[in-house]
Amino acid sequence: MKVSHIEHLGIAVKSIDEALPYWENVLGLKCYKIEEVADQKVRTAFLKLGQTKIELLEPMGEDSTVAKFIENRGIGIHHMALAVENIEEQLAEAADKGIRLIDQTPRKGADGMTIAFLHPKSTQGILTEFCEDKNK
Ligand code: ZN
Fold this sequence. Notes:
The protein is of the alpha+beta class. It has a single domain, classed as 2,3-Dihydroxybiphenyl 1,2-Dioxygenase, domain 1 (Roll).
């Protein structure tokens, strides 16, 4: 597979406003974007950490999957996003290798990325996102 690096880590938080001081004031990272992803019912905040980003995910409503995640497992790492080339090809290859896909076809994610999720039951317990920047 053509996986180059960790594009971002998705971190579930109860409140971006409460979480940001840790990332900005303690670690010294900078938030460069806050974006609502309505169809995912999350508000996101992005910070840069080298070539990797940190994506803070705040649920917008009780029925958000992130709200359910926090209820079950608490705040913390929610998913790992891997940068891939040609996301359609990588998804097909993953499916061929027996990986269960959450998204059969790629869709638009936050921060201008094209994304697709793989099911944690077939990725060693880690909710995994393939991520391709098609604007490059
Ligand atoms: Zn993500």
